[in-house]
Write a structure and sequence with these properties.
By secondary structure, the chain is an alpha+beta fold. The chain is built from eight helices and 20 strands. It has a six-stranded mixed beta sheet, sandwiched between helices. A five-stranded antiparallel beta sheet has the order 13-12-11-14-20. Helix 3 packs across helix 4. The two termini are 39 Å apart.
Length: 359
Amino acid sequence: MSSVSLQNLEISYGNVPIVKNLDLTIEDGEFLVLLGPSGCGKSTLLSAIGGLADVSGGRILFNDKDVTWTDPKDRGIGMVFQSYALYPTMSVERNLSFGLRIAGIDRAIIEKKVKWAADLLQITHLLDRKPSALSGGQRQRVAIGRALVRDADIFLFDEPLSNLDAKLRAELRLEIKKLHKTLKSTMIYVTHDQIEALTLADRIAVMKDGIIQQLDTPLNVYNKPANEFVGSFLGSPAMNKVEGKIVADGDRLVFVAGDFRLDVSRYPFAQKIESGRPAVLGLRPEHILPAKGEAQAIEGKVSLIEPMGSSILAWSTFDGISLSHLVGQDDGCEADSTFPVTIDIQKASFFDVGTGWRL
C-alpha cells in the first residue's frame, strides 16, 4: 500500500492560482473523496497527484518518496476518468490487457491479471465484446478493470460515475465500495456529488477556490460543518439559514431574527457564546420535527409541499421566517394549513456572520 502526502502544494495556470498552499495526507488504504463545486480545483489536484498536471510549488510524496516530477507511468498509479477512453476497435479483453502488452508483460501473467479483474468486476462474459456493444455501466467497469490490472497501490478516480443514470450510479457506488474493501488500496476520488462522497469516503476534503474548507469523516462534515459553505454544499434538501443574533433572556439564551425567537440554551457550548452576538443559524430540514404534543412546539403556516416519495418536504413560515422541514406521509401536513414542529437545537449549527466559520 501507499500513503500520499501533499506539502505546501500550489498549482497555477498562468497567473491564475488554482490550488493554494495545500497540505494533505492520505493514509495507507484510505478512501479519500475530494468534494466541491465545479472550478474548485479538485480535478486539477487529482491530475497533479497522477502526474498529469505540473505544480507551481510544493511537493508530492508517495510513501515519503518525492514524486513531484516523476512521469505518470513511473508513479505506480491506476487512473479512472469521467470519459471511459476505451479503444473502440478492441474487445474488452484487449482493452484490459493493452497496457500490459505494450509493457512486454508475459502472456500468462496478462491472462491471469485480466481474468482476476474481470471476475472481480463481473465482466467475464463481456470479454469478447467491443465497447459499442456495452452499456454505460459496463464500459465504466472495463475502465476500472484497466486500472486494476496495473497492480497499483494508489487509484485515482475523476468523477467516474458522472455520465451514468441514477440507478447505475447507485450500483457502481456499491461496486467501488466493495472494491476498496477487497483491495485495501489507497483511493482518491473526485466528485461534486455529495451522495457519492458521503457513502464512499473514509474522509472527505471539501474544497472551495483551491482551498480545503474541511477535512473530516462524512458524519462530522455533515453534522458539524466547519463553515457556512460546507453546511450549504452538503445536504439535500439544503440546510436552512437564518441570520439573526443570540441574546440573553433571563437565564436563557435566545436566537432572535425579527419576530422569530428560538431558545438555544441547550445548544452545545451555548454558554460560551456572548449575548448580542450576530450569528447565522443553520438548520437541516430533518432536524425540524413534527410535534407530538410537546410543550415547546411552534406553529408554522405551510405555504408549499413537495412530495419526495417516502417523505414530504414542507415549506412553512414561522413568525416571518421561512423554513423547509421534512414530514411523513401520514403526518397530515397540507398546504395552507398550520403545522406544529419542534426544533432539535442540539443538531443545529451557528456560524459567524462575518467570516462564515462555525461558532
